[in-house]
Amino acid sequence: MKAVILAAGKGTRMRELTAETPKPMLPVQGKPILQHIVEGLVASNVTEICVIVGWRAEVIKDHFGDGSAFGAKMVYAVQEVQDGTGKAPEYAKDFVGDDSLILTYGDILVKAETYADMLKRFGEADFGGLVTVTKGEDVTKGGILLFNDDFTLNSLVEKPSAGQIAELKEKGLLKDGDPAWYNAGIYIFKPVLFDFTAKLEKSPRGEYELTDAITALVNNGHAVAGLEIAGRWVDVRDPEVLASLQD
User: What residues are paired with 108 via a beta bridge?
Assistant: First the structure.
């Protein structure tokens, strides 16, 4: 198992905080967000890591180097064009090779044991992928995931409107009282993922969406496991969230 961390964006919602520093390198309790992620992966024996870099890439490279100081083997791939999450993993395709990969955004914080929980769940059957979810978030700002009775993925809707949520309820796909599962943005995939990212077309937002590749994975018969994240899950999306983590 290898890991790919998406850390190329500038993080414009952080305003002046990312003028010189890429968002994943903003400090939380004395060390960069990205370092928390790397240390969690290493604690779960995932030590081969590729970081997809872009904005102020040298800040990340200077901090981590080859990863040896953190117990990891780290390499970097540069995403020159910011055209969506769907194409970003392809920069690590050669690095991944025939291995499976943990894929995470560089601004999501979870407990270190979350990665071990993911590996355990992924190993329970012949899954093509795994998606993590949490509840209590506003699904209209992210994505809602719908599952079968065995908690494998049935379908997902990116940033659903109120009308789409009502339609899901009418179809019985979302029942009153059931959790609205929010896409937590950490995944495991077999390398078959790249078969589907290669075929992506731009969404109405003008970007290549990773969620479209996951939908294609499911539609082509690859079972995708679900896992609820236990304990802490934080999307460090803006200065207010960042400030709340410093205590």
Answer: 235
